[in-house]
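Quick one:
INPUT:
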């Protein structure tokens, strides 16, 4: 069975540029880092999920 991976919009905490990341809800709660596609600085994401509902927190690396 293929699980749907929702796309989540966010705003870069450094430059304010809007972006979008794909969420893997099958992993449960987890953290991941992606670089901003504009300013290339690392963005920390904290995903909390029960596999269906989710909440995404976006932070600068040193916050």
């Amino acid at each position: 069975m293929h699980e749907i991976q929702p796309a989540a919009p966010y705003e870069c905490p450094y430059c304010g540029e809007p972006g979008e990341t794909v969420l893997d809800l099958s992993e449960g709660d987890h953290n991941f880092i992606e670089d901003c596609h504009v300013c290339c600085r690392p963005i920390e994401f904290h995903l909390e999920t029960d596999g269906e509902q989710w909440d995404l927190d976006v932070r600068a690396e040193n916050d």
